[in-house]
Amino acid sequence: MSKRRPMQEATFLILTALAGGSQHGYGIINDVEQISKRRVRLRAGTLYTALERLQNDGLIEIDREEIVDSRLRRYYKLTPTGGQRLAEEAGRIHSHAKVAMSRLERKGKAAPA
After folding, report:
1. Among 22, 59, 69, 79, which residue's Cβ finds the most Cβ atoms within 10 Å?
2. pLDDT of res. 1
3. What is the pLDDT of residue 107?
4. With left for phi above 0 and alpha for psi between -120 and 50, is residue 58 left, alpha or beta?
5. How far is 56 from 35, CA to CA, in rounded Å?
6. 26 with 41: CB under 8 angstroms?
7. How far is CA 44 from CA 23, 24, 64, 66, 100, in A?
8. Beta-carbon neighbour count of residue 100 at 10 Å?
9. At 54, is the secondary structure helix, strand, or coil?
10. At CB < 8 A and 24+ separation, what contacts does 56-65 make?
11. CATH number corresponding to 9-106
12. Residue ranges of the domains in the chain?
């Protein structure tokens, strides 16, 4: 089995946003900001570059398009491969966090709230 590089945080958050259902770009930007507790704020250019890369990688796809106020609104959704990749990455992060928390508890250090 080949080793995969850890996912960049923005990629992880975009996929996490889409795990809740299809969304358009502005919705993804808002959801990522909410998920990250306003720590990560994606700019439109950054988002659309990432969406194109994720689409090329087969992790997301266009769900539908609609015209709103004379502008095209494109909705994206997670593919089954994208869901699997997100689950793998979430598991990796969770596993590392469990080890860190366990070691902190053994050392008697307070865990963050």
Report:
1. 59
2. 46
3. 77
4. left
5. 25
6. no
7. 14, 11, 19, 19, 34
8. 11
9. helix
10. 58/82, 59/15, 59/85, 59/86, 60/15, 60/18, 63/22, 64/22
11. 1.10.10.10
12. 9-106
